[in-house]
Design brief:
Layout lengths: L2 H15 L4 H21 L17 H14 L2 H22 L23 H9 L6 H17 L3 H5 L6 E2 L4 E4 L8 E4 L2 H13 L21 H14 L8 H14 L4 H8 L4 H4 L1 H17 L4
Antiparallel strand pairs: 1-2, 2-3
Helix pairs in contact: 1-2, 2-4, 3-4, 5-6, 6-8, 6-10, 10-13
């Protein structure tokens, strides 16, 4: 098989063996197809006369040239993600064919450390409270979306993947069944978020059976992540907040505000569904900046 034919085989194997999420599989597929397009355009040395890319002809230099081209038009983080996909592909291929990977010893791309963007608690409250009415039902749904994102720190894909069976109204908990690696976790919901969900459920235009999606459009179809982004952007305008906050930004707000209020990192890690505590620890930097600012404003000899 040529490189183009091996990509679908790798994606299929990855889905079966590692139980990677659908988003991860789609991302790896896109990244490898982008690499294949680069080789087709510039890598004549790796192609047959028919135009098929011969995987065994791809060298580390081809990959380095590709990553350099990616960084010319995109971020280093994008290039790093593409390298992860290529390395994963070659690990699978080496295990399947015994041919050594040309990128085994290639080092990861160093990324600039960026702190998560976080809005203050008052600004988040304003975002939730200030309606951007489209219709009464849409307002109830949009309020539920914001309340749940901020109350739980869910990823947007996790929010849109919720079914009503995942909401435990007696315990005020939500079961997240579609996290990274398909690992389930249970997260506290909070009274305002639960009340917002109950109000939306009573106004839903379609079935709210246990297996029905929680977040839908006004015709009853499951809402997309892109639609949730548009809702958050519309609410920012309605609240008069000049900020480019995204739904994922509410996840950052959740973690940082919890940390500022005294929650421990381990608990936040569990609620966010981070596999590694190191991923959660970046919020300590945001929290320390907050602490320094409080000290600067409050201490007479700061």
């Amino acid at each position: 098989m040529g490189f183009d034919d091996e990509i679908p085989a790798f994606i299929s194997a990855l889905g079966k063996v590692s139980r990677a999420s659908e988003n991860t599989l789609k991302g790896y597929h896109r990244d490898l197809e982008d690499f294949a397009r680069f080789l087709t355009e510039r890598g004549r040395s790796v192609m047959e006369d028919s135009g098929a890319i011969i995987t065994s002809r791809i060298s580390a230099d081809h990959v380095r040239d590709y990553l350099a081209a990616v960084m010319d038009r995109s971020s280093r983080a994008t290039a790093q993600r593409r390298l992860f996909a290529i390395k994963a592909f070659y690990r699978w291929r080496e295990a399947s064919t015994g041919e050594p990977s040309p990128v085994r010893s290639m080092k990861s791309i160093k990324l600039a450390k960026r702190l998560p963007h976080v809005m203050g608690e008052r600004a988040v409250a304003g975002l939730i409270e200030n309606a951007a009415p489209v219709s009464p039902a849409a307002e109830l749904r949009d309020r539920a979306i914001l309340e749940v994102l901020y109350a739980t720190g869910l990823r947007v894909s996790e929010l849109t993947g919720l079914a009503w069976r995942d909401i435990d109204e007696e315990l005020n908990m939500v079961t997240v069944r579609a996290g990274k690696g398909n690992k389930h976790r249970v997260v506290p919901l909070g009274e305002p978020a639960l009340e917002a969900l109950q109000a939306w459920r009573s106004a839903m235009p379609a079935s709210s059976s246990p297996n029905s999606p929680v977040i839908t459009n006004l015709r009853g179809g499951r809402l997309t992540a892109r639609s949730v982004q548009k809702i958050v952007a519309r609410r920012l305008v309605a609240a008069g907040i000049d900020d480019a906050l995204t739904p994922h930004g509410l996840r950052h707000c959740f973690a940082t505000h919890m940390l500022n209020a005294g929650s421990d990192l381990r608990s936040i890690q569990e609620m966010l569904g981070h596999a590694s505590l190191a991923t959660t620890q970046r919020y300590t930097h945001v929290s320390l900046n907050h602490l320094k600012e409080v000290y600067r404003r409050a201490h007479p000899r700061a």
